[in-house]
Sequence to fold (168 residues):
Amino acid sequence: MAKKKTGKFEWGEAPKTNWIDISIPYKDKMLHWPGDPVPRFQRIKDRDKGDPVTLMEIQIIDHVGTHVDAPLHFIAHGKTIDKMPLNATVGRARVIEIKDKKSITLKELLPYNLRRGERILFKTLNSERCYKTDEFIDDYVYFSTEVAQHLADRGVRAVGLDYISIGT
Fold:
C-alpha cells in the first residue's frame, strides 16, 4: 500500500478499515482439486543472482485458493465472471459459523433468517483442518442440496465457503 507524502509516494501500512481479510494466500503446489494442474510459482529471474529484475512465473487455474465461481462454472450458458456485477461479491457480508462436521444443514441454517440480497460466508471445520496441508481433503464440510435451494429461494446475493468446493 502506498501513501502520499510531500508530493511523492512512499510505502506504508495499509489504511485501517473494518475489512477482515479471509483470503487464502497463493503458494507453490498449494491445495487444488484432484486432477487439476498443480499450482506453480517459480522465480525465473532474481536480482540477488545478478538479473536486472526479479520475476515470478505463475501457473494456476481459477479454482484454487480464495476465488469466485462464475455462474457458468455450474450452469450451462451461465454468466461469465466479467458479466457479473462487482457488487455481487464486494461489500458487507455476514459470517455464519457452522458446527456440523459433515455438511451445512437446513436445520442449522434456519435460525439465521437469511434475507434477500445478503452476502453470506460460512465458517466451518474446513477452516481449521483443510488448509493445514496441500493435499486435498475429501471429507470437507459442504452444502447440502436443500441448503443450496434455500439460499437461492431466499435471494441470497453471494455465498462463500471456506474450501475450494461447495458440494460433493
